[in-house]
Amino acid sequence: MPAIIRFLGYNPSPPPNSFRERLVWARKALGLSQKVMAEMLGIDPTMIRQWENGTRRPSNRLLDVVEPFLEARAVKLRRRSIQP
Fold it and tell me: pLDDT tens across 31-62, in order?
């Protein structure tokens, strides 16, 4: 997906609305596996899988870790998509 975004100059995926959608969107746009994303966040990969498939929601403590990660990556991806 990162190569497609670089080629097109934008992310062709529809914008995410929910936490689950933002998590999947960011992970795929960055070309990360669930395992690698979990390692970056310092959590178990099972948590990412459960959040993405909707069987579990993150606790407030974990949201405090994940939200800044998603925001920082979203800004980075938006910058990347507007560069020529």
Answer: 899 999 999 999 999 999 999 999 999 999 99
